[in-house]
Design a protein that fits this description.
Elements lengths: L2 E5 L2 E10 L6 E9 L2 H16 L11 H14 L4 H18 L9 H12 L4 H20 L20 H9 L6 H14 L4 H11 L3 H5 L6 E2 L4 E4 L2 E3 L9 E3 L8 E4 L2 H20 L21 H12 L12 H12 L4 H8 L4 H8 L4 H14 L1 H20 L1
Antiparallel strand pairs: 1-2, 2-3, 4-5, 5-8, 6-7
Helix pairs in contact: 2-3, 2-5, 3-5, 7-8, 8-10, 8-12, 13-14
């Protein structure tokens, strides 16, 4: 039962608040400044009800920055990948810039919404969503540990950017995958004007749909030259693009671990490249670190995404292709060609390593111009007789009208 007492001209209460986990002694919660005894009694009753129902949250002097650092350590301890941890940490810097020294119990839903609105005026909707997701995880962690009563980031509205006509036109021009004819032009440029390894690199991406990190992590032991298969079970993480700082991590999802069949053309390119790589390793034996990587530098380290991106841009300049292509575009290209070849969506899902078929359908259900044209041709063939009759009837009617 709370103790109600007068303190000067105001009223106050003191109530039991459990035991201190360190000392084992009873703790007391108190609050003063009430104008009447009745006000103090009501406040004390509310406290006791919240305390006994587990809803009470002790006053805390923890700032958002302190909470954020604590959560990042916890996040890593729960098995988060280094790449995911780094992405969360970078996203949270924007929230720390706003609420860093603010007590977490003082951050309101309105203040948080204002921050989201401000970020939305400066960053893309996808990036703002990433920032919000990270912040929401931090606040949820605080709520689970009874540091805050409510999660201020809950049910916050993320502004959606409306596309203008100019944006839609830009999207249609800058398609993020290559048509079959464009891919042929690019790979011929890689063959005739590229450096050693360029042709294999981009043929591998286009013929397998591998993520760039998955491809860089490939080792010769992952290739079955007899059965023409390729095993994917790791990805290369190297955000600094430093040849010595790479890490081999497990793939994006469990479904990303897969074995896929590869084309005989790719097998031939791999065999030829293996012979060339063996020569390089022998010539640079004194400093070559042979860890079995396929896409390796002259020192044996796995190539970086930056290196491959630069090679891509230089090769594009030797073609007539005007699209804004990245290494990931070849994954889209592979998918569009699978669709054109009438491969079932389930097979595409398994080949790409998607855990959810909706991901395959939502992100990769791009129809190439050839597929659209083919659909039109098939419809035309189906309706040929009817169309012919319609045209003939029209001509006959016109002829009769001219005679009359």
């Amino acid at each position: 039962m709370a103790y109600i007492y007068k303190r000067g001209n105001k009223w106050a209460y003191r109530a039991y608040a459990g035991k201190d986990p360190v000392t084992g002694k009873d703790k007391q919660a108190s609050k003063s400044g009430f104008l009447t005894k009745k006000d103090a009694q009501l406040a004390a009753a509310l406290f006791e009800r919240q305390f006994h129902s587990g809803e009470y949250v002790e006053p805390s002097a923890i700032t958002f920055e302190t909470l954020c650092n604590d959560w990042l350590k916890h996040y890593l301890s729960q098995g988060a990948k280094e790449s995911s941890h780094r992405a969360r940490r970078i996203a949270l810097t924007h929230v720390v810039n706003v609420f860093g020294q603010t007590l977490i119990q003082k951050i309101t839903k309105k203040a948080y919404q204002d921050m989201i609105d401000d970020l939305s005026s400066r960053f893309s909707p996808n990036y703002v969503s990433s920032i919000h997701t990270s912040a929401n995880m931090v606040f949820a962690y605080a709520h689970e540990n009874k540091l805050i009563k409510e999660v201020p980031s809950k049910d916050v509205k993320l502004p959606k950017k409306k596309k203008t006509v100019a944006d839609l036109e830009k999207d249609s021009i800058n398609e993020k995958f290559l048509e079959k004819e464009e891919l042929e032009e690019f790979l011929l440029a890689a063959k005739n004007e590229g450096l050693e390894g360029d042709l294999l690199t981009f043929t591998m991406l286009a013929y397998t749909g591998l993520r760039i990190g998955e491809m860089i992590a490939l080792k010769w032991a992952d290739i079955d030259f007899i059965n023409h298969t390729l095993r994917v079970y790791k990805t290369c993480y190297n955000p600094s693009n430093n040849k010595l700082d790479y890490q081999l991590l497990t793939p994006k999802t469990e479904s990303s671990v897969r074995t896929i069949t590869i084309d005989s053309v790719l097998v031939d390119l791999l065999n030829a490249y293996k012979n060339e790589q063996d020569k390089v390793a022998a010539e640079n034996k004194a400093f070559y670190h042979n860890n079995g990587f396929i896409f390796a530098t002259n020192e044996g380290y796995p190539k970086t995404i930056k290196h491959i991106s630069l090679r891509l841009q230089r090769l594009l300049k030797k073609t007539t292709i005007q699209k804004q292509i990245t290494p990931h575009s070849f994954r889209h290209t592979h998918t569009s060609l699978l669709i054109e070849a009438n491969v079932h969506i389930k097979e595409i899902q398994e080949r790409l390593g998607h855990s959810d078929i909706n991901t395959t359908m939502d992100i990769y259900a791009h129809m190439t111009k050839n597929v659209k044209k083919e659909a039109s041709n098939k419809f035309g063939d189906l309706m040929k007789d009817l169309s012919k009759n319609l045209i003939e009837s029209k001509h006959e009617q016109k002829h009769e009208h001219d005679i009359n």
